């Protein structure tokens, strides 16, 4: 009869495993933060373009009494 014996980690092995696991988690989180930052940058650019477009349209169609309202989205 053969019994399955779980491997018991030594303190050093456990420490190495934890360090490896934390490094992998840190790498993944760093990647996610970078991707989210890039997405925020992209959305900010799109927002700026839309605001610029809005003001251009307003400038073409605005009446003199509307000119005080041109800072609404700044």
UniProtKB/TrEMBL annotation:
Coiled-coil ranges from the UniProt annotation: 19-60
The protein, known as: Uncharacterized protein LOC102803463
Residues of the full protein shown: 268 to 341 of 341
